């Protein structure tokens, strides 16, 4: 029995095009204390990478209208004496960074609410800082205290497809975690069971990212429009993860 060309075509298995992502680039990670960081010649480059990363808010309605880092020395000042910075270099160019400092949940007179508190409000109410949202903050009975030890800050990857989605940010945070454990060991602290690291994350920009990496939400804070130079109001998550032993 003969088969027509049309029938043969319909019986041909569909070709599936497999697109493989490019492998991660070769890079190294170095750790710097604040005093060491201030002596480096790449401070302006580091500042530019952080700001470029923070301006890139992906497929969200958020627009950042001002830089995360305004001066070459700001990051070192934020870390104070106990903090440190991990920096990823590819062929001596800065491609990413993450830092760790002492946790300070109340530095901005923050009012923290329990996890899930702001789910009762619509996106428009959150974005516009409606009176419904603002009035709800007065109920002190629902406030929570967010205790922590150390905070991951200024996590940034150069917005370039060669470096994004390659696990570099996760490696930088891991390097910070390992450096913290090393410092704690040198200080004679051998019990890491009760130690943790924290992160403050805008729920609708990077919240899902940190959830996938083992952090859990321990508090929520409302930030009205123009907080940190973002055009919309947002929910800020305080997130916690125990140190791996």
TrEMBL record:
Organism listed in the record: Penicillium vulpinum
Boundaries of every N-acetyltransferase domain copy: 67-183
GO MF, one example: acyltransferase activity, transferring groups other than amino-acyl groups
Protein name: N-acetyltransferase domain-containing protein
Source taxon at top rank: Eukaryota
